[in-house]
């Protein structure tokens, strides 16, 4: 990955986390890893909802929208990591898989939130 792409990815994750925190979510983990799986952000909303977030940052939508770049394999790995973290936390509440699409604009980074994006 080029340095520019890495910087956009990191800025995108930071913007996504800030966006969700501003919406009342609590950040539990950033870059949570389990085996080959990585979850960009793990958020909690209250005591009843755990949200696993994939952040997709793209420099433009020229080649498609960021939210369309999550493959079936990525979703499988994401679910494995989510199951592992639920066991670690002894989580009995609901879970959700979200995608946050981040694209640069003249005003800064635009964040779009897609709830329950895997189903």
Proportion of helical residues: 25-40%
Total helical elements: 2
Element order: H for helix, E for strand: HEEEHEE
Summarize model confidence as the mean pLDDT: 86
Q: Classify the secondary structure makeup into a structural class.
A: alpha+beta
Distance separating the two termini: 29 Å
Unreliable residue stretches: none
Largest sheet: 5 strands, mixed
Rg is: 14 Å
Q: Into which percentage range does the β-strand content fall?
A: 35-45%
Q: Give the spatial strand order of the biggest sheet.
A: 1-2-3-4-5
Number of domains: 1
CATH fold assignment: Trna Endonuclease, Chain: A, domain 1
Give the class-level CATH name.
Alpha Beta
Protein name: UPF0102 protein MUN86_01520
Organism: Hymenobacter volaticus
Family: Belongs to the UPF0102 family.
Pfam family, one: UPF0102
Structure, explained:
The chain has 119 residues and is an alpha+beta fold. The chain has one domain: Trna Endonuclease, Chain: A, domain 1. Helix content is 32%, strand content 39%. A five-stranded mixed sheet has the order 1-2-3-4-5. The longest helix has 20 residues, at 3-22. It is globular, with a radius of gyration of 14 Å. The N and C termini lie far apart (29 Å). The mean pLDDT is 86. Belongs to the UPF0102 family. This is UPF0102 protein MUN86_01520.
